[in-house]
Design goal:
elongated, binds arginine, mainly alpha, two-stranded antiparallel sheet, about 55% helix, Fumarase C, Chain B, domain 1, Fumarase C, Chain A, domain 2, Ribonucleotide Reductase Protein R1, domain 1
Length: about 525
C-alpha cells in the first residue's frame, strides 16, 4: 500500500530517511531546496504562486493539500509525464536531448519513490512532489515538462490509469472468491438444504445450487468492472486546464503510448469528467452488496439456531469475555463494507451533481471515495474467500431442516399429473397442510387414508411425491436445482472463470521515432 501518514509537520511513508536526515544522499535536501528556490524563489516547491504576493494561509494549505490521498498515483503520473515529454519533443517544444533528460529524470524519481521517498509537508499533491523531485534530479530543464499541460488533465489521466489497473486487481480478487465457491459447490452437488423465500423454508435445493446463487452476481460484477475500466480508457491528456493544449502535441500518440482506447472529444468535459469513477464506485457498491448478502447467509447459517455451517479457526475471532465464542468477524465486516461502498458512491455523486462545467477543486475529493472503496473491497474479498474456504457444511443438519411440508408444491404438481387443475390442487394441498398443522405433524406423517379422503386423485404413491430428493430431481430445467442442471451450471461457472479479466487496453506502443 502506498498509504501515507501525517506525522507532525511532515508526511512520511515509513522509516525512510527524509531530506536532511542522516542516510539521505546529499543531493536530497540540499538539491531539493536549491531547485525549489531556483524555480520559485521560495523555500516551498509550488507549481503556481507567481501572481501572489503573500503565501497561502496555513489553514488553506491544510485543506488544499491532497498528497496524503493522491500519493499512490505516482507510478501513473510518472508514466504519463514520460509520455508527455515525448509528445512535447514530437511537437517541437522540447529538443531530443531535453526530452531524454526529462524521461531519465522521471525514471530516477520513480526509483526514489520505490526506495520510499517521503512527501514533504510542503508538497501540495503528488504532481507537485514529482515536479520537486524532478528538479532535484535534473535541474531547471524539469521546468519545461509542464508546458502545455495542467494538473487538471494530468490528474484525470493519472486517476484513469490507476482505475484501469485497479480493475485488473479487483477482477483477480473477485475470481479468487469465485474459485472457492466453485470448489465448495463441486463438493456438495448431492447434499440438500432448504431454500428460503421471505426467510421462510420454501423448497429443497442442493447446497451447490445455493452456493452458485452467490457466484453469478459476482460474475455480473466482473462484467461491470470491465465496463468501468473501458470507461476509464479515454485519454484526457492534451485538454490542458480547460480549453485544450496550444502546442501541436499528438493526442493519438499519447493515447497509444499510454494504452488508452480512445481520446476525449471535448476538453471542457475531459477535465471534469468523473463518470468513470462513479461507474467504478457503482460496480463496487453492487459488489459490496453481493458480498454483504453472502455474508448475511453465512452468518445466519453459522448460528446455533441454524447450525448449517461451521467456521474455521483462521477466520473467526473469540470474545474477550465469553470463552465459548467464535465470531465470524470477516463476514460481519464484509456486510458493513457494503455500506461503506455505498457511502463512497453517494459522496462522489453528490460532489459532481452541482458543479459548474470545467475543473473545480471539489473534484480532488473523488480520490478519497475511490481509494476508500477499492481498498475496502480488496481487503474484504480475500477475507470472505478465506472464510468460505475453511468453512464446513453440516450436511446432515441441513438435510434434516427439510421438512416434508416444503414439498407441498410437489404434492400439488402430483395432482396436476393426475389431471387436476393447479388451482384445485393448490386448494386441496393447502387444506392438507392445515390439517397436518392442526395435528402437529408434517405432511408425510398423514396416513394414506387422509390423502384419499382429501381428493380421490391421491393414490398409494403419494408419499413418493413428498421426498426431498425427488423434488430436487424433478427440477432439471435450465437454471434449476436438478443435479444435471447444476452440473451444467457448474461447467458454465468454471468456463467463465477461466476467462481472465477482459479489461481492454490499447497497445502500449513506444512511439518515439528516433
Ligand atoms: N490535486 C488536484 C486534484 O486532485 C490536482 C488538480 C489541481 N488543479 C488545480 N487547478 N488546482 O484534483
Amino acid at each position: 500500500m502506498n498509504d501515507v501518514a501525517v506525522a507532525g509537520a511532515e508526511i512520511v511513508t515509513g522509516d525512510v530517511p527524509r531530506a536532511g536526515e542522516p542516510g539521505e544522499a546529499p543531493r536530497g535536501a540540499a538539491a531539493d531546496k536549491a531547485a525549489a528556490s531556483r524555480s520559485l524563489g521560495t523555500t516551498s516547491h509550488k507549481l503556481w504562486g507567481g501572481r501572489f504576493v503573500g503565501g497561502p494561509a496555513p489553514a488553506l494549505e491544510a485543506v488544499n493539500r491532497s498528497i496524503a490521498i493522491d500519493f499512490r498515483l505516482w507510478p501513473f503520473d510518472i508514466r504519463l509525464s514520460k509520455a508527455w515529454a515525448v509528445a512535447l519533443w514530437n511537437a517541437g517544444v522540447l529538443s531530443l536531448d531535453e526530452s531524454r533528460r526529462i524521461e531519465a529524470g522521471l525514471d530516477a524519481v520513480a526509483e526514489r519513490f520505490s526506495a520510499g521517498a517521503a512527501p514533504l509537508a510542503t508538497d501540495e499533491d503528488v504532481h507537485t512532489m514529482i515536479d520537486r523531485l524532478l528538479h532535484a534530479e535534473i535541474g531547471d530543464v524539469a521546468s519545461k515538462l509542464h508546458t502545455g499541460r495542467s494538473r487538471n488533465d494530468q490528474v484525470s489521466t493519472a486517476t484513469r490509469l490507476w482505475c484501469i489497473d485497479a480493475c485488473d486487481q479487483l477482477d483477480a480478487a473477485v475470481r479468487g472468491l469465485q474459485h472457492v465457491m466453485v470448489r465448495q459447490a463441486t463438493q456438495h452437488q448431492q447434499s440438500l438444504m432448504p431454500s428460503y423465500t421471505h426467510m421462510q423454508r420454501a423448497q429443497p435445493v442442493s447446497i451447490a445450487h445455493w452456493m452458485l446463487s452467490h457466484f453469478w452476481p459476482l460474475d455480473r460484477d466482473r462484467a461491470r468492472l470491465a465496463a468501468a475500466a473501458r470507461s476509464a480508457g479515454v485519454l484526457p491528456l492534451g485538454s490542458g486546464a480547460v480549453a485544450g493544449c496550444a502546442f501541436p502535441i499528438s493526442r493519438v500518440l499519447l493515447k497509444g503510448s499510454l494504452g488508452f482506447a480512445s481520446v476525449s472529444k471535448n476538453s471542457i468535459d475531459a477535465v471534469a469528467d468523473r463518470d468513470f469513477v462513479a461507474e467504478l464506485l457503482f460496480s463496487l457498491s453492487l459488489l459490496g452488496a453481493h458480498l454483504s448478502r453472502l455474508a448475511e447467509d453465512l452468518i445466519l447459517y453459522g448460528s446455533s439456531e441454524f447450525g448449517f455451517v461451521r467456521f474455521g479457526d483462521a477466520y473467526t475471532t473469540g470474545s474477550s469475555m465469553m470463552p465459548q465464542k467464535r465470531n465470524p468477524d470477516a463476514l460481519e465486516l464484509a456486510r458493513a463494507s457494503g455500506a461503506r461502498m455505498l457511502g463512497d458512491l453517494t459522496s462522489l455523486l453528490a460532489t459532481i451533481k452541482g458543479l459548474p462545467s470545467g475543473y473545480n477543486k471539489d473534484l480532488q475529493e473523488d480520490k478519497r471515495a475511490l481509494f476508500d472503496a477499492v481498498d475496502g473491497i480488496l481487503l474484504v474479498l480475500p477475507a470472505v474467500a478465506g472464510t468460505l474456504d475453511e468453512l464446513t457444511f453440516d450436511t446432515a443438519r441441513m438435510a434434516a431442516a427439510i421438512s416434508s411440508t416444503m414439498m407441498a408444491t410437489d404434492l400439488a404438481d402430483y395432482l396436476v399429473g393426475k389431471g387436476i387443475t393447479f388451482r384445485e390442487a393448490h386448494a386441496t394441498v393447502g387444506a392438507m397442510v392445515r390439517k397436518a398443522e392442526e395435528l402437529g405433524v408434517e405432511l408425510h406423517a398423514l396416513p394414506l387414508g387422509t390423502f384419499e379422503a382429501a381428493h380421490t386423485a391421491f393414490g398409494s404413491d403419494v408419499h413418493d411425491a413428498l421426498a426431498a430428493r425427488a423434488s430436487v430431481d424433478r427440477r432439471e430445467v435450465e437454471g434449476g436445482t436438478g443435479p444435471r442442471a447444476v452440473r451444467t451450471q457448474l461447467e458454465a461457472a468454471v468456463s467463465t472463470l477461466a476467462q481472465g479479466g477482459e479489461v481492454p487496453r490499447g497497445n502500449e506502443l513506444d512511439l518515439r521515432a528516433d
